[in-house]
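Lecture 7 notes: from sequence to structure.
We start with the chain below.
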Amino acid sequence: MTPIARLVSECAARALAELDPRARTAEIVRAARPTLRGEVRVVAVGKASVAMASGALEALRGARDVDVRACLVVTPGAARGVRAGELTSTPRTRILRASHPLPDGRSVAAARAAMAVARAAGRAASSRESALVVLVSGGASSLVAWPAPGVSLADKRRVTAALLASGAPVTEINTVRRRLSRIKDGGLAREAGGARVVTVVLSDVIDGDLSDVGSGPTCASRAGAHAARKILARYAPDLVTLPLTPRAAPARVARPVAVASPEQLAERVARQLEAAGLRARVLPPSLAAAEDLAREYVRLASKLAPGAAIVRVAEPSVEVPHGARAGRGGRSTHVSARVGAGGLPRGVTFLALATDGVDGSSGTGGALLVGPVTGRARTLLDRASRAFDTGPAHVTLGTALPRRPSGHNLADLHVLARARG
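Predicted structure tokens for the same chain:
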């Protein structure tokens, strides 16, 4: 690894550490402590659920006027991956594992369990003070999936798979998911009845609202069935006749509080790079197609001055043609493969990092390219990206980042940097 590549990797790691979801969740819940009294129940869902639940429990621990009755954690990782001392599965703390990115039977069971916790908070509110603390991070839409009446789990899987393959933006995918679910679109908060509901969000959504994360288990959307049907007609016309639920009444819940956002990550990475002596520029977040982003990065790389860096957070869309058989790939390995296929000059490095540590089905956490990328490497990356099989190609070239669930989820991070001199 070249010095500039090592520097970029270290700066990204330090920026992610600054936005530690455990510590930041603890701060937010501690600030809300004066309003949390009596029975308190916690539901944490998403890729950062373990860290966020740990932070919330730390903030609530030892309070005389708080009785933590239950904590449900739903994660895509195995419970054995929980760091020692952070969370322990007990009668009051349940750690469930569910499926991502496509829901399965475990996702339905997890959704039912979450609704049961909310229902218990609502029952307690009839006789004493009661609160439900909901911690949401990316991946929650798949991890808790209880189909609406008339919709089967198979229907939800077909819709999700079709929309993911179409390259539809996550905000539009979640608009459809809301209309096919009992727990989303504020369903979890409505189940809590008169209990106070506090929502804390680690956002992975670009160009969206906090209520978009996890398809809004405590937040009702303004988009109804008509909007969802238009999205299906555009991206998955074979599924347009599925029964969609109308907009539900908004739940009585305080506005979600953000733990961190992708935009904050980009700013922190730029700050780290500048502290290391580079001139860093943050580009606007992007939902553009992976191909378009890659072309832009190839063009920028050819003009990048020595000692300069460019930082962006993105959720690139990768459209797999209908009928095509995709291999093992992900957004970060795909973008970096297209950048490599376009050619990367000597002295320039390109980082495409899945901040949750898992880049789709690629078997990697993303990729780190070091210029020059020429000859055989360019050919291999070009072929791999056209076959949507980019993970193995990066492993072969030694450009793959290790697949390592991070407990974070702040979209994808892209950094382009050129060594000084």
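Points to note: DSSP finds 14 helices and twelve strands in the chain. The domain at 36-260 is CATH 3.40.50.10180 (Rossmann fold).
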